[in-house]
């Protein structure tokens, strides 16, 4: 870390600075025994700030049954969190302003606002007590970018030009040029303003949520989901970000894709409303319905062909001929390629990888009695259900031959894979009642293996990984456990 650069940035006279009323709000609310009337008086002493807060709390976003005429009443009806969050949000917006200095404030505020709204909407859905802090943290997360721009000027612009406007590449460019990154600078500013750790930690770790220290995982991951929601709403191709949003929401908070889809629509509406209420320019707002529809079409297309985009599975399949002619799923040789590439990606990126194996017990016997056409119909229906439950997770659906199928999942952990497998099994059992081979004559046995960062520290070999999934499937077929527990592949 370049301490001279840090000193140059933090000593810059044009850095954002909070007004006295905001600093006083921080001071008062740092006391667990804060007196609400004193806080209300502090905010109301700044009439402009008070009117903005009241206008916002009376909006549909907060859904109060009756209008609030005073900050004191707002504190009574909404509680400390929302009022404090809004007062500091307006102060933050005012401190940054919208200067004509070559900085792209529209993009900056769009990312901050979408993240803030998404983090709050998700936290409210989960009934978490950190919803209002998450909103403020979302707005605050990239304050370090503004600081570095104002302090370093053209040097910062030149150094970050290689990112090409891609925020995901920004940190690499900053580290390469200055040996310091905007999350660290932002956290230092938040500390200077005496913000609590509940806000400092999301600023410091918003680019790497899984690295957050114990006790702050929840709020940092809310910001991480908020950033993915922003990407899904603003990227030219929303599919990779939306798929990753569904994955992370499930892995981190157990939010199913259907529920997350409804939340995405709520986030889009909320971002549009809050942009107007906070009076910040975030540009045109995308239609959530069309984004979700476009992404779902692409995800289903990937599932049907067994292929994936470079942003998701890094072209796991390189030969489009590796498909099963009956079902259109990936065939045996394509499975080998997909598994090898996903496994290597996992070793290089430290992302989780899972392998689900499915055997249709009784298929061959029943097909021999009723006919191969009925057997083929059951196989096709099985592939359809596998796509339904694993496509949104980016799974590569494979037919290995006969009654054996597999799903390769890069970026999904064992718990997520097991939940999707259980949902598939329940759907399969229900659907087979009306199939030609139904009536309980065909059952789906499921085996799973997974490798996740840190379990174990050494990445297992590919052979051990496959053996773990086969052993899990054998256990399921013998014991009738549907699905069996996840095998953690040993190194």
Rg, alpha carbons: 26 Å
Query: Distance between termini?
Result: 35 Å
From the spread of the alpha carbons, the general shape counts as elongated
Q: How many strands appear in the DSSP assignment?
A: 5
CATH C-level class of the largest domain is Mainly Alpha
Classify the fold: give the CATH topology of the largest domain: Hypothetical protein af1432
The CATH architecture of the largest domain comes to: Orthogonal Bundle
Structural class by SSE content: alpha+beta
Number of domains: 2
Regions with little confidence, pLDDT below 50 for 5+ residues: 302-320
Report the sheet with the most strands, covering strand number, pairing sense and barrel closure: 5 strands, mixed
Return the average pLDDT rounded to an integer. 83
- Going by CATH, the homologous superfamily of the largest domain would be Hypothetical protein af1432
Order of neighbouring strands in the sheet with most strands: 2-3-1-4-5
**How much β-strand is present in the residues?**
5-15%
Helix content: 55-70%
What is the structure about, briefly put?
The chain contains 22 helices and 5 strands. With 491 residues, it is α+β, with helices and mostly antiparallel strands.
Q: Can you describe this structure?
A:
The protein has helices spanning 3-10, 20-29, 36-44, 47-57, 71-78, 80-96, 105-126, 131-140, 143-152, 154-160, 167-178, 182-192, 197-205, 217-234, 239-253, 257-278, 288-305, 332-349, 363-370, 372-390, 414-432, 462-479; strands at residues 353-361, 396-401, 404-410, 443-451, 486-488. The chain is of the alpha+beta class and 491 residues long. A five-stranded mixed beta sheet has the order 2-3-1-4-5, sandwiched between helices. Helix 22 links the parallel strand 4 (443-451) and strand 5. Mean pLDDT is 83; it is low at 302-320. The relative contact order is 0.08. It is elongated, with a radius of gyration of 26 Å. The chain is 61% helix and 7% strand.
């Amino acid at each position: 870390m370049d301490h001279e650069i840090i000193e140059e940035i933090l000593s810059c006279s044009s850095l954002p600075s909070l007004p006295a009323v905001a600093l006083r709000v921080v001071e008062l609310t740092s006391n667990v025994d804060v007196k609400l009337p004193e806080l209300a008086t502090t905010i109301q002493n700044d009439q402009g700030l008070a009117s903005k807060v009241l206008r916002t709390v009376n909006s549909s976003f907060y859904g109060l049954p009756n209008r609030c005429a005073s900050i004191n009443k707002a504190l009574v009806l909404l509680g400390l969190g929302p009022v404090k969050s809004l007062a500091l949000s307006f102060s933050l917006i005012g401190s940054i302003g919208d200067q004509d200095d070559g900085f792209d404030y529209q993009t900056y505020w769009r990312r901050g606002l979408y993240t803030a709204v998404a983090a709050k909407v998700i936290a409210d859905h989960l009934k978490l007590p950190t919803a209002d802090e998450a909103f403020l943290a979302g707005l605050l997360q990239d304050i370090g970018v503004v600081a570095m721009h104002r302090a370093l000027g053209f040097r910062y612009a030149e150094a970050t030009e290689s990112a090409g406007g891609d925020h995901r590449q920004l940190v690499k460019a900053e580290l390469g040029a200055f040996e310091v990154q905007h999350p660290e600078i932002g956290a230092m500013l938040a500390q200077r303003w005496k913000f609590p750790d509940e806000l400092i930690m999301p600023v410091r770790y918003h680019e790497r949520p899984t690295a957050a220290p114990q006790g702050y995982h929840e709020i940092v991951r809310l910001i991480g989901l908020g950033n993915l929601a922003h990407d899904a709403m603003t990227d030219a191709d929303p599919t990779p970000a939306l798929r990753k949003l569904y994955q992370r929401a499930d892995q981190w908070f157990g939010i199913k894709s259907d529920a997350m889809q409804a939340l995405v629509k709520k986030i889009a509406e909320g971002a549009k409303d809050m942009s107007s209420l906070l009076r910040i320019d975030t540009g045109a707002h995308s239609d959530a319905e069309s984004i979700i529809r476009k992404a779902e079409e692409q995800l289903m297309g990937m599932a049907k062909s067994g292929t994936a985009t470079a942003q998701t599975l890094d072209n796991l399949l390189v030969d489009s001929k590796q498909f099963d002619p009956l079902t259109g799923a990936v065939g045996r040789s394509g499975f080998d390629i997909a598994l090898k590439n996903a496994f290597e990606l996992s070793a290089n990126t430290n992302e989780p990888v899972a392998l689900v194996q499915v055997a249709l017990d009784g298929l061959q016997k029943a097909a021999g009695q009723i006919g191969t056409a009925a057997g083929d119909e059951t196989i096709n229906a099985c592939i359809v259900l596998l796509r339904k439950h694993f496509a949104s997770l980016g799974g590569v659906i494979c037919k290995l031959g006969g009654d054996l199928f597999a799903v390769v999942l890069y970026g999904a952990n064992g718990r997520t894979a097991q939940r999707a497998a259980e949902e598939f099994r329940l759907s399969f059992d229900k659907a087979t009642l009306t199939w030609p081979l139904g009536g309980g004559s065909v059952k789906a046995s499921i085996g799973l293996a997974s490798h996740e960062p840190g379990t174990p520290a050494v990445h297992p070999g590919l052979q051990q990984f496959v053996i773990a999934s086969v052993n899990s499937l054998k256990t399921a077929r013998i014991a009738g456990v549907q699905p069996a527990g996840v095998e953690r592949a040993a190194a």
